[in-house]
Structures are given as C-alpha cells and as structure tokens.
Amino acid sequence: MRGAPLTLTLATFAIMAFAGNSLLARAALADGAIEAGAYSAIRLAAGAIVLLPLIGTRPGLKDAPGAVSLAIYVAGFSLAYLSLGAGVGALILFACVQATIIAAGYFRGESLSMPGWLGLMLASAGLFVLLAPGGEETNFTAAALMAVAGIAWGTYTLIGRSSGDATGSTARNFLLATPLVLPMLWFDSGMPSWHGVLLALTSGAVTSGLGYVLWYKVTPRLGLGTVATVQLATPVMAALGAAALLSEPLTLRLAVGAAAIIGGIVLTLLKPGKTAG
C-alpha cells in the first residue's frame, strides 16, 4: 500500500508525542514546579496559539464535543500526575482509552470473540496488580482521575476519527477547551516556576498541539482495532523514558501489570480469520 510508510511514520511521531506528554507532565508536577491548574491552562493555551493560524472556520457547536472531551482529558491527566508515576499513569490512561474504543466498536455491532473476553479479564487483572495495596503505585484517587482522562481521550480519538479537517478541528478544540480548565486555577496554591511553565508550554505547543494534529490525520486511515493497537506502544515508551530521564524504577510489579494490560488488550483485538483493523 503506497500510503502505508507515511501512515506508519505519522503514527510513530504521534505515539512519541503521547509518551512525551506523560514525561513532561510528571517532570513538571512531581516536584511542585507548577500545579495542575496552571499546567492544564498553559498547555491548552500554548496549543491553541500554535495552531491558531491553521484554525480554518470559526469554532461552533459542532466543535463542542471535541473541546469538552479534550478539557476533561487534560484536567484529569494533570491532576493524576501529581501522584502517579509516568509509566503507571500511561498504562492506566491507555488501558481506559482502549476500553473506550473497544466499547464503541462493540456498540456498533463488533462483538468480542472468546479471546476478546479473556483479554478483558487479563487487562483487568493487570490493573488490579498495579492498584492493589502494598506498592508505591497505589493511589486510587489519582488512578480514577487518570481513568476519566483515558475515557475522555478515547472519546476525543473517536470524534477526531470522523473529522474531515484534522488541523482545523484540533485548533478549534484547543481554543474552546482553554477557558473550560481555567476554574482549576482557583485551587492552585502558588505561582509556577519558569521551569514548570516551560514544560507546560512544550507539552502544549509540541507534544499536544502538533502531536494531536498528526494523530487526527492518522486515525481516519486506520480501523478501530488498529487505532487501539498502535497506542499500546505509548505506555511502554513512557515507562522506559521515565526510567531513563526521571529515575523512576522499572519494578517487577509494573512489568507484570504492564504485560497483563497490554497482552489483554491485544487479545481483545483478535478476530477469527481477520487481522485487527
């Protein structure tokens, strides 16, 4: 297929951007360089400014679902990374993203096979391993916030998949989502450092704004199963990056939970006589 190499290249850069978001957020929020409200607002505003020249048509009601989904994702993501490690957070995030995409396919008539049901149970067991008492990964409030972020991102992906204007739609979503997170600033207790602001700007302008444009361009070319599959690389990249750049440990618990979640999701994508996507 002639467009396959380009699609693969765009998908690779998009996945690198997703992993980068986890690393930037954790680096900014873990040491108190910036708080969740300021991080969320700066991230969305930076993305909106970078994409503003590409906005196309004026924002309207048709953009509201994408903007709301984006705002919920960014808010939950920032609040969760106050406590969660980058690798654990990315695993919970994308487990919920895949569950949302798979559920959407199910309600569209794509029934799960026996391996699919086994995969759901395996992925659920992996989440239990990560969240069971007795390890530093355990933080139920943060995990719940990241789960909400994952559902919102899965919804955002589905909305973007049907968009005929990837760049303009992303720009309008960022513009409309920015004021939606401003109430979070009320709960911030101090001024952000320049280091925190720089990380938020990088996340918004590069790994979010430009990364999401790439993802919006890729998803219409892929089936739902393939969209779900390629995102599985994100938590792996995030965990490895966190170990190398943020000194987060690659624990046995994280490895077992990751293997169960990723393996379970792969099983849910198996269809007899078909390739995923």
Topology:
Blueprint: H1 4-30, H2 36-51, H3 64-80, H4 86-107, H5 114-131, H6 140-161, H7 166-181, H8 194-218, H9 224-230, H10 233-245, H11 252-268
Helix pairs in contact: 1-4, 1-8, 1-10, 2-3, 2-7, 2-8, 3-6, 3-7, 4-6, 4-9, 4-10, 4-11, 5-11, 7-8
Q: Characteristics of this structure?
A:
about 280 residues, mainly alpha, about 0% strand, disordered C terminus, EamA_dom, membrane
Fold and architecture overview:
- The structure is a single chain.
- By secondary structure, the chain is mainly alpha-helical.
- It has one domain (4-268).
- The chain is built from eleven helices and no strands.
- It has helices at 4-30, 36-51, 64-80, 86-107, 114-131, 140-161, 166-181, 194-218, 224-230, 233-245, 252-268.
- This is DMT family transporter.
- Residues 1-19 form the signal peptide.
- Keywords: Membrane, Signal, Transmembrane, Transmembrane helix.
